[in-house]
Amino acid sequence: MRITIRLDDDLLAEVKLLAARSGKTMTDVIEHALREMLARQQAEDEHELTRLTTVSGYGLQPGVDLDDSAALLSLMEAFDDPA
């Protein structure tokens, strides 16, 4: 299909240069760029959003250091222990 498009002069110069260096036509370069952009957009659209489960509560409790995994484990075990 034949169409007419308007390109920025600097962009057109880059397309011409790339076409000449790669031994391709300007049409090939533009088609490749459009296909690549459309494929990337489609891949972004297909990504599933991750849903995080949240619960109500009181937030981070005083004295809890999220960087100290041993202390966190100790606190969780103490919370689970009915005694």
What is the CA–CA distance across the termini? 78 Å
Largest sheet: none
State the helix count: 3
Beta strand count? 0
Tell me the helix content. Answer: 55-70%
Overview of this protein structure:
With 83 residues, this protein is mainly alpha-helical. It has a domain at 9-46. It is 57% helix and 0% strand. It has three helices and no strands. It has helices at 9-22, 26-46, 69-80. Helix 1 crosses helix 2 (26-46). The longest helix has 21 residues, at 26-46. The chain is rod-shaped. It starts with 8 loop residues before the first helix and ends with a helix. The model has no long low-confidence stretch (mean pLDDT 88).
Briefly characterize the structure.
The chain has 3 helices and no strands.
Keywords:
single chain; 83 residues; mainly alpha
List strands and helices in order, with pairings.
Blueprint: H1 9-22, H2 26-46, H3 69-80
Helix pairs in contact: 1-2
